[in-house]
Amino acid sequence: MTDSVKRAAETPEEPMPYAELGMKDDEYRRVCEILGRRPTGSELAIYSVMWSEHCSYKSSKVHLRQFGTKAPKSDALLVGMGENAGVVDIGDGWAATFKIESHNHPSYVEPHQGAATGVGGIVRDIMSMGARPIAVMDSLRFGGADQQDTRRVLPGVVEGISHYGNCLGLPNIGGEVVFDPCYIGNPLVNALCVGLLRKDQIKLATAPGPGNKVVLFGARTGADGIGGASVLASATFEDESQAKRPAVQVGDPFMEKLLIECCLELYQADVVVGIQDLGAAGVSCATTELAAKGTGGMTVDLNLVPLRDPTLRPEEILMSESQERMMAVVTPEDIPAFMAICEKWDVPATVIGEVTDTGRLVMTWDGETIVDIPPGTAADEGPVYERPFHEPAGQAALNADGPERLPRPDDLRDTLLRLLGSPNLGSKEWVTSQYDRYVRGNTVLAQPADSGMLRVSEVMPGAEETTRGIALATDGNGRYARLDPYAGAQLALAEAYRNVAVTGAAPLAVTNCLNFGSPEDPEVMWQFAEAVRGLADACKTLGVPVTGGNVSFYNQTGSTAINPTPVVGVLGVIDDVARRVRSGFAAEGLRVVLLGDTRDEFGGSEWAHVTHGHLGGLPPAVDLEAERALASVLVEAARDGLLEGSHDLSDGGLAIALAEACLAQGVGATVSLPGDDAFVDLFSESASRALVCVRPEAFEALAELCGRHEVPCYGLGSTGGTSLAVEGAFEIPVAELREAHAAPLPAIFG
Amino acid sequence: MNAARVGVVTFPGTLDDQDAARAVRLAGAEAVPLWHADHDLKGVDAVFLPGGFSYGDYLRCGAISRFSPLMDELIPAARAGLPVLGTCNGFQILCEAHLLPGALTRNEGLHYICRDQGIRVENADTAWTGDFEAGQEIVLPVKHGEGRYVADAETVAALERDGRVVFRYVGGNPNGSMNDIAGITNEAGNVVGLMPHPEHAVEDLTGAPSVDGRGFFTSILKKLVNV
């Protein structure tokens, strides 16, 4: 029997399964207060998914506000947090929209589909801003490379991203793959998408204008992914994970590709008033959010929703997270043109409702009213928690157990080869060769470059020629954040910011994906609060606003949480994309120059991890002013054509940067070290440093530029030969470096 | 003289059409968009079937596209001598349409593979390879999951005997194709299919670290001018 509003009013005492849907007693009581009666089954479905941690940000909201209150002034910001994705002005009338989002829990349960639909979801977010999606990136974390379950999860995740992204025709231009036993059972799959649009063509998720039609278009609704986001991403995994498999969505990239082209044609024809993608919480989310941001009311006839499975109940239709669906608000006059475009692209489209000015979202099923709620109460007025937090009990002891006690190596040659051949620093080609990095023909830089870079060139009405390009990098170091979440989040931002700058692009804006354990654990909540505070402070200092992002909690199994892992994405702009700088030694006879100072900093380092399995002490010091000065030098030097190559120093320090620079083109180098401790010079992970190479005649201009920005600058030697020779330490043939670097992933994954 | 007009076909799920059109334009020709649902070749002088996942590769790569209205026009035109180039999914469609013999199956390694690949031009007499030298080695990207060329022994022997193997992989075969075959042509030499992507190797700034793909487009332009 359909649980109608009328029936709900008549049966106030009927017990409702709110606890099974993840809703707490007091949350349920609030729903009853809002409605003045018990909710119907369909209303309960809406509130339970909309008020889930994943959709409502109820534990994180009070902290995330800092991204707004501390936001630096930026003329570039066109659309900030709260929309499907942020939009920034990149000049010449163009805008870029980008966002990173997690699909962690589904990717553990079913790696292929979990990761694939993670790509699909973020791409639809970008589409719904009015943009053409132009590239994707993925920031991935897995358990130890040699752990059994990693062999199940990693190949599936990579194949899912590969299949979905490649089939969609979006180049995959970068990202990260990091292994650490802390992620076993809780892999992180953070997918980023970037899109391009004309500044004056931004679309928003809003349903204004009573009488306007509500159109559901794209794939039909099925039973897949019912409650996926709320159920999977809002609770800790216990042993019954297998039983949650049906909660993972199944993707159809072909339909998504049709949706992209269809949406772009709809935008061009100017027949869309408002648009929203259907992601987590499906129809519930799209209808409540569109209505809440528009005139305020909407009627929907749920019988009109096209179904893949005709036996679905209204509650299931509301909660289904079937992929490749969008919802648009269209004026009645434009409906024929809208439908014609959908038909051209073989995209099913159905009018399922209408915008009203009643302030109520009203849904019917078989002629009976089954939902009658103020939409804002579901979309915007969910519960907000000030979760208690305190420093973890072992934090002081962890910080006191520094790397100073670790024996340091005599054989630096062996140390370099060992690090270079470890899963985290070795070649990621096994993964990235499964991604199409060339499609669309605008890829200027892709992995293993420091950041991905795209030429701004799209065939769009009103588009003007531009020489500009955009660069994107993501970074995040869970070990640093475990030692100090405040500094760890800042270091993630600093590294992504630096990775954008080394390619010659000026950092402009930030997106983030905050991956943590359970917010109900005060020690995890402390990590989260500290990381957000650190990131917000650093964004303010560096002048790059947060435009949007995503929080993923409950990344823990039992009481063991992952290392706190804030992943930060930075978008930058290069005025003349032909001036982009590649990462390696481009030719023989170039001067090799180190920018920035090196200190004895090994807390959380790759060296401590690989050679001692040690995590303790403090992460490298953060100096944001130095970071900003370094970026200024890099961007100006690139603009002036001084740089022949430029590479960020991070995990594994100078030694790894030198090795990678040699590997890029197979050109060796002979260098001497600036300090008096070769081990520290080579393997310390001090921040705010870069390795560049310049033509000899350009060195003076570079040194002068560094002087002006007060960036330390050390000539190390020159490029040439077939070995990496570090005076007084070692000489390693590039071929030997290559062999070590290429080995780890194929050895494990085949 | 008017610029040569090269049609670039878009099926649902075609991905490299924008790149293909750009490569055609860079070579100095006019790129004419052709839509799969039209019975209309728009009077073009040559046709480029670009890569992608037409119809999501459902059923079999190229198996559905081959029945599109546009192919009804293209198949007889190609048999009558219209120059046609199919890359990647375009190659798969040409095989499904029986304009070229054989089939493309799942890569030997079972993974999709994207890499810059060494290729030897074996036949410089086709409509699309006149600007290369026979034996010349070039670099083009490959990016596919189902690019392993197979055919029965008789067909492969005939292809080899008649010089219809146009491209061969060198420096490692990415997909396990028979005889390292990367691309082939029909008997008349007007229809060429290959797995690698010349349209991704035409500019210094973007794509593969080579501009060897330009030769395909300059070849066809010269051919069209001389016809």
Blueprint of the fold:
The complex is a heterodimer of chains A (750) and B (227).
Chain A: H1 5-10, H2 25-35, H3 41-50, H4 53-56, H5 61-69, E1 77-79, E2 86-91, E3 94-102, H6 104-109, H7 111-127, E4 132-142, H8 148-168, E5 172-179, E6 188-198, E7 213-218, H9 228-233, H10 253-268, E8 274-277, H11 282-293, E9 297-301, H12 314-319, E10 325-330, H13 335-344, E11 349-356, E12 361-365, E13 368-373, H14 375-379, H15 395-400, H16 412-420, H17 429-432, E14 443-445, E15 452-455, E16 469-475, H18 478-483, H19 485-502, E17 506-515, H20 522-542, E18 546-552, E19 556-557, E20 560-561, E21 565-574, E22 591-595, H21 606-612, H22 624-639, E23 643-648, H23 653-665, E24 669-671, H24 678-683, E25 690-694, H25 699-709, E26 713-719, E27 723-726, E28 730-733, H26 734-742, H27 744-749
Parallel strand pairs in A: 4-5, 9-12, 17-18, 24-27
Antiparallel strand pairs in A: 1-2, 2-3, 3-6, 4-6, 7-10, 7-11, 8-10, 9-11, 12-13, 14-15, 15-16, 16-21, 17-21, 19-20, 22-25, 22-26, 23-25, 24-26, 27-28
Helix pairs in contact in A: 5-20, 7-8, 7-10, 8-10, 10-13, 19-20, 19-22, 22-25
Chain B: E1 5-10, H1 17-26, E2 30-35, E3 46-49, H2 69-79, E4 84-87, H3 89-96, E5 103-105, E6 113-121, E7 137-144, E8 148-150, H4 153-161, E9 165-170, E10 181-185, E11 191-194, H5 214-226
Parallel strand pairs in B: 1-2, 1-3, 3-4, 4-11
Antiparallel strand pairs in B: 5-8, 6-7, 6-9, 9-10, 10-11
